Structures are given as structure tokens and as C-alpha cells.
């Protein structure tokens, strides 16, 4: 008898135990291992593979949602140019142009960052295909910095909206007290960004839901950007800028369920996971589950 088998970390031999990696590959997924814009803790370049490992080990059973037996059409990683932001941005846009062109009106595209600056390049591509995009960001920070020197992932939203304000309707959720320069409030007002501080959503989500549904009504579709540092550092320790008194994952899930209800989701990204600073892969695993909740909630609502 042949007692050899494929290498695996599992010693449970259950042929009916299907994981995400075993299902039909239908959801486009792209990794973007860029973190040279990080001014704090580098390491997000390692996140795409770390999140993939967790994502593909998960299963499809979920409470009170239609079970979507899907897999991910993993297109690989964008070949970034280490240290060269302009060339890397050009490559991200080129890859996204090709993908959005092919899958328009079909499933949303999933992006695994990378620091949060990758979202700017993705959206510059996406904006070529739609007149108005609803951009809903989970983040502890405004990302509206105005820097004189150096690179920072904390300026990407300001850079995007400077020349493309009319293309986006933006909501930021989870902004943290004592974590942002105060001048950014005025920049947010200038761009018409609806901002919800972490403390505003502790007791009641109705104002958040109201703004989300206004965005859904007045745009061609929604892009969701999940910066993992919007979550409390006890849940997401492995990020560039850990957040004390941040959001809880189930608050995020409730909001995601509202975003995906009766909407058109164009894309979803997760950013700022830094595996070298993580504990037992907690943050990568949580990022993977939030992505699954997002896409499962969307497809479950759409097909239910």
C-alpha cells in the first residue's frame, strides 16, 4: 500500500470537509505587496500571501446568510517595483484596467494590500469605467495628509480627490480620537466626505446606515476599502498603526451587511496588515474573514 500523500498541515482526513480553495474559482483576487509608502511599521508587503493562507483555509458555512459555495480566481500579485511609487502605481492601474474591463457588471474584484496607498491606484483605474463611485472606507485615520517631503500612505485620499473629487462620494467610518491632525477635518469638509468617528457608532448605527443608503442611491456602485487599523488593537495587533479603543469586528460586519444590501459592489480591498508585527496570524485571519463576510453578504443578498 502507498502511504504517501500531498504535504499538508492537517491530520484530519475528512473528504467532505470542503474549504474555500476547493470551490469553483469565480471571484477575481489580486495581491498588491507594496508598503514603501509606510511611514510607521513596514511589513504590509507580506500581507497578501499571509491573508491568502488564512482565506483558503476557511469554509463556507455561515449563520443567517445563504451559503455561497465560491472560490477565488487568484490572478496573482501585481509585480511591484520596490521603492518606486510612480512605476508601481502605473503597473497597478494597468492590471486593474485589464481586469475591470473583463469583469464589468459581474463579480466584484478583491484586492489584498499592501499599505493603504494602493487604493488610490485601484480607484484611478475604476473611475475610468463609472461616472460616480461610492467609496466607503473603514479607517482610524482620515488619510488626508499634506506632506512636504517623504512618502506616506496617510495622504492617498487627499491625492485622489484633489483631481477627482466629482468622481467619488466618500464615507469614512471608524476615525479614531487622538489619532489625526486636526487640520484634516477642514479638508474632509472641503471634499464633502461624510465622517463617522468611532465614538459616534457605539450606540446607534442609524445615521451611518442613512448616509450609506444615500450613497447607494446616487452612485453607479460601491467600492469598500477596509484598513485593518480601524479595529481595536486587541483584535488587530498586526497593523502599521495599531488603534486603542478602535471598532469591534461585529460592528464592522453589521455595517458591511448594510452596504451590500440592495447594492452593486465594484470592488473590496483590505490594507495595512503587517504580518511581522502580528500575533499568531490574528490580523491576517480577521482580514480574511471580513473579506468573506463582505462577499458572502453581497452575493447572498443578491441571489437570495
From TrEMBL:
InterPro entries: Ureohydrolase (IPR006035), Ureohydrolase_dom_sf (IPR023696), Ureohydrolase_Mn_BS (IPR020855)
Cofactor(s) needed by this chain: Mn(2+)
Single biological process term from Gene Ontology: putrescine biosynthetic process from arginine, via agmatine
GO molecular function: agmatinase activity; metal ion binding
Cofactor, free-text remark: Binds 2 manganese ions per subunit.
Domain of life assignment: Archaea
Pfam families: Arginase (PF00491)
Binding site for Mn(2+): 116, 139, 141, 143, 227, 229
Family the UniProt entry places it in: Belongs to the arginase family. Agmatinase subfamily.
PANTHER family: ARGINASE/AGMATINASE, GUANIDINO ACID HYDROLASE, MITOCHONDRIAL
Name of the molecule in the record: Arginase family hydrolase, arginase/agmainase/formiminoglutamate hydrolase
Organism: Caldisphaera lagunensis (strain DSM 15908 / JCM 11604 / ANMR 0165 / IC-154)
